[in-house]
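Rotation project, supervised by the postdoc (A.L.). Task for the rotation student: set up a whole-complex structure prediction and record inputs and outputs verbatim in this book. Inputs entered:
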Amino acid sequence: MALSLPTHSSRSLLPLPPSTKPTFPTLRRLNHRVSLVTASIPLLQVNDLRAKIVESNVPILHGVNLTVNQGEVHAIMGKNGSGKSTFAKVLVGHPDYEVTGGSVVFKGENLLEMEPEERSLSGLFMSFQSPVEIPGVSNNDFLVMAYNARRKKLGLPELGPLECISYLMKKLELVNMKPDFLNRNVNGGFSGGERKRNEILQLAVLGADLAILDEIDSGLDVDALKDVASAVNQILTPQNSLMMITHYRRILDLLKPTHVHVMDKGKIARSGDISMVETIEAEGYETVSTST
Amino acid sequence: MNGVGFSAAAWSSLIPFSSSSSSSWVSQKKLVRPKALNRAFTSDPYVLELAETLEESIPSTPSTPLPLHNLRNASSQSLLSTPWPSRRDEPFRFTDLSFIRQSRILPLSHPSPVKILTSHLPPTVYVGPLSALSSSSLLHTVSQYLPHTFPDADLFWSINGIAAPDLTLVYVPENCHLQDPIHFHYTPPQPPTTHPSDTMYLSNPRVLVVLEKGARAHITEDFSSEQGNDNGRYWSNAAFEAVIGEGAKLSHSYVQTQSFHAAHTKWTSVRQDSFSAYELTEVSAGGKLGRHNLRIQQLGPDTVTELSSLHLSVGEQTQDLHSTLVLDHPRGYSRQLHKCIVAHSQGQAVFDGNIKVNRYVYALVLQYVNEMHSVQSIERLRYAQQTDAGQLTRSLLLEPRATVNVKPNLQIVADDVKCSHGAAISDLEESQLLYFQARGIDQNTARRVLIFAFGGEVIDKFPSSSIRDRVRSHIKNLLDPSSN
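Outputs recorded:
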């Protein structure tokens, strides 16, 4: 399948050097509002998306509708089993799920026709909720391989492992990890927190137009959560968009979503702004999902 | 070092053996279990003829060292009652030897198929052919260990015994630590330029390693095909024996990358005295048939044994590991990792990993009464307690109809032991592939990396970095010929 190069500025695809500006979420919000005005076509347009589990034929998504524009920060909340993670996995092309209806257009392209690696190369990133361990493959080799796949896609020459080192070191600093992290096997013997940081490290190395963070906050202590949030704030520019799936308010306070959605029974039951989180905290998902 | 005569091994036939193991094979293909065998104890004419040809090829002169002479006699005796193995014999149930049998076997009278590469040996160490050994005391020491036989010694052990033209001896005296590895390069039989196509030239290299108390050595056995001789049709039938003294440590690397038309049968028999350590790292990827028989026998308590093997079948090949670990003494620690990759629809891997943890050993006790009499009794001793044995086999089948037959089996008769075993047969993990793809790496690259990483776990265990690098690139080429 032929893929056009990113329609958006390649800046957003090419990983940027760590930002020198202080992490100050409100500044980012101001910036993104500006960019929001300039965005002409939606970054991601999901229409009536339906999907089932391949193995059991159980339908999970019953018609999801969602539009994400450049620079927006979306939070998807909802109770366990409402389809939040399935939605994220379907977007990145997880083979356990089969799309049974609807459409997804990402940067003007039909996302559902792309292989998972093509989706990644076109600027879609998802952090895994439980990243799998890959014995025998070092974090360093994995990152170099992924970074070179990205460079190849952009028509840039591939780099040797040594040439990548200084670039990777900067990204390690960003997620507050020690250099020996690179020598360990991918997610091998990582603690829950290390796995999550590793996902963000990959986001930092690869960059993304749309980053989907699937429960990046679960299993993190307060300090780790701050590290992760600050890294995400530094990685994302006003041109990037973010979709986070979460159960908790803590990360929302740090990443300041512009849109909040509540998923229920495989659909987006309600959308609003950050103020909706207050209602959820006070009255629970049931009330929020059913009231319109 | 213990004499072997009164060790547990010598009495193993007295062990009243009740086995708790199941002998079920984990198999990808449904196979009918053969009926119980009536092993014929009559001579097999084919074997006798082969034995005769082999004996004739070996010059028996008065100068033949006595241990070698004894070895040949004992082997010749056992060949009289050993038939050519058939698929009805349990140890060869999945291993087809017919292409050897259908060939005309001709022994090659190599002066020595073993090339020794080593340097800086202390003068007290001996590494060389037994025939060149001048020290009579050392010859006497060697006589203690030869010939060695054990219950599961097979035809190939005996064939090597009668046909080995010489024996390469490694002798490391007490407390001597060898810094540099001893490297054996086995030259495959070089047939004459014109020979009938059904002929298979046979070589029988044999090595005996004796590490005295507290000694340390690292030995590398390298069965790699010569450049440009990748199509050789030959049969290497090698035997490696080691006796590891009290507190001694042997690190053993074994690499087999012979021709895809060759037969490679190999014995590794190790006897471990108390507090000794044996580490084996094996990578076998060559041969139409690769068969490794590995036997470790504990001679005393507190031994450490670590075995790691990687078998790779990328063509119409069978890679077969039959291992037996006999733990008769307390506090033996063992870890075995077997990994195989079958990347061809006609490829096969076989693993029979047997661990015997025995509870009782019967010892012959002679009590002195007076000059004329002694009381002889057999005493039952409780042994092999606090054994810690672990075994894991993992197989990767990459093509439809690729076959693996694995039988990890523990026979535990002691009651205070910790044993574990596991077997997994699979294609690559979907979740791992997706993880690569989700980061923009295409599926073919991901598969290649994951397959190599699977084998890398064993390759990483070679102590020598030059062996590691060489094996790594060889395996990479086999798995992905397009890579260079």
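Student's summary: Chain A has a mean pLDDT of 85.
Supervisor addendum: The first strand of chain A starts at residue 44 and ends at 53.
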